[in-house]
């Protein structure tokens, strides 16, 4: 294992979210051997010496912050230029909603494959490349599939994708096929597809899993927090994130916590997780004070990217919202469609339905935000990921 771990930065380790037991870095360890809990990739900050000046000598993007990522810079990095996405201030939409605080959209649709998944995939595929696997696998609602297929192609690695049959947006499916991925359609939901990946991951150590139960993929996704603090000069006051499998909100919170521990920001934001009403296992549990999700067997929402009833990272997401004094909210499909159209018409920003949940959430949270606060809405994917929604639900109104 020492040979396979040689590319990891020496100050990294793994820590169980539940029992807190720590382990040495291991690319194949995805859950705690003691209690089966999820694992966090953690950094010993006494070993790290960094500053904003060090980062700002490099282009804005995921690998700008390589000292806070697991792979040593002298090993193979698989990149398509991910990160460095626009932070766009909104003007007309807040005015329409009678909002006086500052609102920004972090437009992740400008990543290479059109979604935030590229941030994590560059790290996960780089690990796969360095440990010498020749095949990776994911379950997906679409965006992970597109990203995994593209980055696997870049690395010269085969890609196996499990998709819920008939429930993936055409734009995302087309991307995965274009990049040469092997597609297996699964009867049922994303949760059924993910179960197949988990079963394969347990059985063998030849196909490397890239879903967000892999803690190393989430290390790439935390860089969104780094970019926000980098560009704004400090952390924003509120960050609003769509929640599906619940890895992204926890990764972003982890990024802010690391910056705070390093003394690079002076405050921590409140994290607001948004779920669609038909797929809201965390938001519904939160609303009645439960510390575990109310899983849904057959989630339904027009926001296919977050149509997940049994989020595997639920414990990390609940921790992020609780620690940040944040909250979960739900929005209806009707609110999502209206928000998607309004953002496009008033601000020129075209996002997919899952991303529009954060815009729809503004009406639900605006009374709890102070006039001088800065709010960032994370728009996770581009509108062209799901063109059928635009044509059938917004343009034609069917």
Explain what the structure shows.
It is a single chain. This protein has helices spanning 52-55, 92-96, 117-131, 143-155, 170-178, 190-203, 215-221, 223-232, 247-261, 281-287, 314-323, 333-347, 353-365, 387-395; strands at residues 12-16, 22-23, 39-43, 87-89, 102-107, 135-139, 158-164, 182-186, 207-209, 238-242, 270-276, 327-331, 374-379. It has 398 residues and is an alpha/beta fold. It has two domains: 87-115 and 217-395, Rossmann fold (3-Layer(aba) Sandwich); 116-212, Rossmann fold. Strands 4-5-13-10-11-12 form a six-stranded mixed sheet, sandwiched between helices. The protein is globular and about 55 Å long. The termini are far apart.
Helix percentage: 25-40%
Order of helices and strands: EEEHEHEHEHEHEHEHHEHEHHEHHEH
Number of strands: 13
- CATH structural class of the largest domain: Alpha Beta
Q: Describe the sheet with the most strands.
A: 6 strands, mixed
User: Which percent band covers the strand fraction?
Assistant: 15-25%
